[in-house]
Specification:
Number of strands: 8
Number of domains: 1
Structural class: mainly beta
CATH architecture: Sandwich
Shape: globular
CATH topology: Jelly Rolls
Helix content: under 10%
Strand content: 35-45%
Strand order of the largest sheet: 3-4-7-5-6
CATH superfamily: Protein of unknown function DUF192
Largest sheet: 5 strands, mixed
Order of helices and strands: EEEHEEEEHE
CATH class: Mainly Beta
Distance between the termini: 4 Å
Oligomer: single chain
Length: about 110
Amino acid sequence: MTVTNVTRKTVLAANCKTASTFLARLRGLQFRKELPPGHGLLLAPCNSIHMFFMRFPIDAVFIDSENRVIHICEGIKPWRVSGIIRNARCVLELPAGTVSSTGTTAGDVLDIQP
């Protein structure tokens, strides 16, 4: 799937996978060596993340039910936990630096296409 920031007219992830079951969300990106540029993982439903057993930092974009960015954690490091973000419906995990390189900020609207 592709995730585009409609507000900024930038692509956040051209190759995004979805984790929609409990086990898939729990595992997330654990034990992977990297998340290449242009890739992402959409966790849905989800309103918080953990970085247990991760090997690299990521950017986490929290999205509401209208596909609006409501919170961002940039460069969250392994073995950290995000807070619970009220009204978040899903979380888009991206390679560290993607948020700043695309100019993504809270309030931006995303387009998520299969």
